Amino acid sequence: MRQNYFIKLVRYMKNVYYLERGLNKLSDGRVNPTYSIGQVVLPVLFGFLLRIKSFNELNFMIKNNEFSKLFPRGTKLPQVDAIRDTLKVIDINGLKQISQHTVKKSVENKVFENGTIDGYTVVAIDGTKFFGSNKKSCPECLKNITGEKTHSFHSGAVMSIVGIGPKLVIGFEMYKPGQDSVSKDEGELNVAKRLISSVVKSHKELIDVVVYDALACNSIWINHCKSLGIDVIVRAKNNNNNSLRFVKKTVNKTDAVEVWEDEKGFEKVKVYESTFTMDKVEQPLRFVKFAIKHKDKKRTQIMIVTTCMEMTLKTLFKMIRARWDIENSIFNNLKTECGLGHCFVHGGNAVEAVLCLIFIASNIMQLFLVRHLKEHFTTQREMVRLLLKGLYLLKFNAELILSSA
Fold it and tell me: In this predicted model, what pLDDT tens digit does every residue of 164-177 receive, in sequence order?
């Protein structure tokens, strides 16, 4: 094999992001453990990089000694039961710091120097369900009861960078039963507020604009983001806000301010806009409607409310459409290829620990593809195939040994 991409990936992780050091600094509540934290977490991280879909699949890889060339000779790796038990008591804050360090290092390396959309660094937030199961559950689970069947799952909000460049997950926040409202909109909004506050605290001046769905089209979300110094773009759909209903009627009676032909695969896009003041929001806001005629003659529209008063209409259009990156590049990709919807383990800190490791692996893969390999591969699936091939052909090399002390 002319190029062993697995060797390149290991060197990239060790020499650029120092993941080995961070993982070995983690702590847990075990007394006199048989396996160190590194011996437990490193195989799990490599498993997620190689897109395992269950811990049983990881267990087969460990039993077949597929990771033996990455550890000092004689190192014994844990079986899946020991992995699950350790993840239940692992230090979650330490894992989140490793994830934050990966993002900070990418910023230091000027990955987002020119922004992601027309010079702005844009993020999107969306809620999703994790680790659903009809059999396993824990005290933190949410439940859907249909007849005699009970489906248990976890829920949370995820923030990802969208636009041009690597789609990094820069934070996530779990829904907390008893603390967050049972109402989907109100509950998810509370989770999203905690998420954006923690991300801004960890990554100052990284975010220029945050894009969110219609459930955030209200004064609570807009005021919260402005207090953090971030501009907002939110979808506007059916809304009970009187001021928003009024501006919709006003815009419907006006002429288009711009008309675009053959814009981004559409036959025609007519743009209407107006400024208005939303109830309980001090500053004026901008309402924009994009009336889209598709090439198959179908017609749709996108309506947004934004605090970006000077931004061009084409940039706003790019940003609201980039919101789908978090759905397509993160959720669909990880649920299809990485088992994000699979119930790996429940109880203690395990759910958040697995999510942290999945997102760290996703970020490393994105950065490795975009920055190190310069996007020579069209799909991550092709990259994973070559990584697995490289792992099987790997020979013992002291330079690649991962310390698990």
Answer: 988 999 999 988 77
Phi, psi at 94, each rounded to 5°: -65, -40
In the block, residue with structure tokens 């991962």: 402
pTM of the predicted model, to two decimals?
Answer: 0.90
Instruction: Select from 131, 62, 173, 47 the least CA-distant residue to 345.
Output: 131
**Residue 220 Cα distances to 159, 217, 224, 226, 232, angstroms:** 18, 9, 6, 10, 12
Coil/strand/helix, residue 11: helix
Q: Is residue 189 classed as helix, strand or coil in its secondary structure?
A: helix
Task: Return contacts of 52-60, CB within 8 angstroms, 24+ apart.
Answer: 52/338, 52/339, 53/337, 53/338, 53/339, 53/342, 54/339, 54/342, 54/344, 55/80, 55/83, 55/84, 55/344, 55/345, 56/80, 58/83
% helix, strand, coil for the chain, step of 5 = 40, 20, 35
- How far apart, in whole angstroms, are the C-alpha atoms of residue 102 and residue 17? 6
Topology (CATH) of 214-320: Transposase Inhibitor Protein From Tn5; Chain A, domain 1 (3.90.350)
pLDDT tens per residue, range 92-132: 999 999 999 999 999 999 999 999 999 999 999 988 888 77
How do the domains of the chain map onto residue ranges?
5-213+323-400, 214-320
| Three-class DSSP category at 390 | helix
* Cβ atoms of residues 162 and 123 within 8 Å: yes
Write the DSSP assignment of 312-370 as a string of letters: -HHHHHHHHHHTHHIIIIIIIHHHHHS-TTS----STTHHHHHHHHHHHHHHHHHHIII
Rounded CA-CA distance 123/229 in Å is 14
Residue 380 parent element (H or E) = helix 380-392
Q: Return the closest-CA partner of residue 195 out of 134, 135, 127, 244.
A: 127
Q: 19-28, 43-52, 90-99, 191-200: which has the minimum mean pLDDT?
A: 19-28
In angstroms, the Cα distances linking 335 to 110, 174, 176, 353 are 29, 17, 22, 17
Q: Which of 92, 97, 83 is nearest to 34 (CA)?
A: 83
Rg, Å, the chain Cα set: 23
